[in-house]
Amino acid sequence: MVDLEQVGQRIKTIRKKRKISQEKLAEMTDLNYRTVLRVENGQTLPTLETLYKIAEKLDCDILDFLGTSKSREEIIEYINKKLNTFTDEELQKFYISFYQL
Fold first, then answer.
1. How many CB atoms lie within 10 A of CB 31?
2. Which domain holds residue 61?
3. CA 8, CA 76: separation in Å to the nearest integer?
4. Same domain, 49 and 95
5. How many domains would you assign to the chain?
6. What residues of the chain score a pLDDT lower than 70?
7. Nearest-CA neighbor of 28 among 52, 49, 57?
8. What residues have CB less than 8 Å from 9, skipping those under 6 apart?
9. Which pLDDT does position 101 carry in this prediction?
């Protein structure tokens, strides 16, 4: 399970290292300032699209926010195992979300 506070803290840390204000990050990502604030404070679950926007503008990888130190192979193996447990309906929803990336 993802710890929202840790994700938000990691985003905040990277943003500050880049010397970018919350307001500027919101502007760069076309997000509402309050959305950035709530994400950094761990008050809301950001969508993958939001995380990708933030990662792109902070010039980092989305995995930096999730705090994973797993290898590419481990991540792929985990995803494959998880996909095998999906119902047909869940798999279709996942496919639609993934296709939009």
1. 19
2. 4-66
3. 24
4. no
5. 2
6. 1, 68-70, 101
7. 57
8. 40, 42
9. 66
Alpha-carbon distance 43 to 35, whole Å? 9
Q: How far does Cα 101 stand from its chain's mean position?
A: 12
Beta strands in the chain (DSSP E): none
The CB density around residue 53, as the number of other CB atoms within 10 Å, is 18
Q: Is the same domain home to 86 and 44?
A: no
Extract the tokens encoding 63.
Answer: 């995995």
Together in a domain, 75 and 52: no
Mind listing the pLDDT tens digit for each residue in 48-68? 899 999 999 999 988 888 876
Q: Mark whether 51 and 91 lie in a shared domain.
A: no
Residue 25 in contact with residue 36, Cβ under 8 Å? yes
Cα–Cα distance measured from residue 15 to residue 57, given in angstroms and rounded to the nearest whole number: 9
